[in-house]
UniProtKB/TrEMBL annotation:
One of its GO terms (molecular function) is ferric iron binding. The lineage of its organism: Bacteria, Pseudomonadati, Acidobacteriota, Terriglobia, Terriglobales. This is Ferritin Dps family protein. Gene3D superfamilies: 1.20.1260.10. Residues 51-194 form the Ferritin/DPS domain. It comes from the Bacteria.
Length: 198
């Protein structure tokens, strides 16, 4: 039988959790903090934040696609791909965090929730069901291609705007790992006999 507890206080402090808190947003999505100690203007930061949020949404989608395929992979290469997809998922977790932190550093608000990501992602949505390995890999390669193109475009725009930090991040921290992951999974589509005829 549940017993109702009286309001608990210690001195003047109420120790019961305030779990029905409601308030207005403190910063709207799509905005940047105007007055902050950053050398870039609010206009440049807003432009970069918009581009980075698109990259973030697509990277979140790619990250989650790796986990989907990790769970649903089957066939003769199951073990290798099961491990590889999970390794790439973990690496994408770090890339997503890197992009999100750059957005916050520029005074922006990161896209974060799955439903919001789904609305703006440019990566084609896979079906809920299981697909054959070559299709899974092809989907991942297409997603990597989209993200790598975005990295190039953002790096170019950041360079033009004098945003060295964003330029460096998208090239060094996002583009290069995506290139490497793309190469690793792409090699699984190379047609190579297991036994050579003599």
């Amino acid at each position: 039988m549940a017993v109702a507890m009286k309001k608990q206080t210690i001195g003047d402090a109420n120790v019961a959790p305030h779990w029905h808190a409601k308030a207005k947003e403190i910063q709207a999505y799509g905005s940047v903090i105007e007055d902050m100690p950053h050398r870039l203007s609010a206009k440049v930061r807003a432009e970069m934040v918009g581009k980075l949020n698109q990259l973030l949404a697509d990277s979140i989608d790619l990250r989650d696609m790796y986990k989907k395929h990790h769970w649903q992979v089957s066939g003769p290469t199951f073990y290798q791909l099961h491990l590889l997809f999970d390794k790439h998922f973990e690496e994408q977790v770090e890339l997503v965090d890197t992009i999100a932190e750059r957005i916050q550093l520029l005074g922006g608000v990161t896209i974060a929730m799955g439903g919001d990501v789904a609305q703006i992602s440019q990566i084609p949505k896979p079906p809920r069901g299981k697909e054959e390995v070559p299709v899974q890999i092809s989907r991942l390669l297409e997603a990597h291609k989209i993200i790598m193109q975005q990295c190039h475009d953002i790096a170019e725009a950041a360079d033009d705007a004098g945003d060295d930090g964003t330029n460096d991040m998208v090239v060094s921290d996002i583009l290069r790992p995506n290139e490497l992951q793309s190469w690793f999974i792409g090699q699984h589509l190379v047609e190579m006999p297991l036994i050579l005829d003599k």
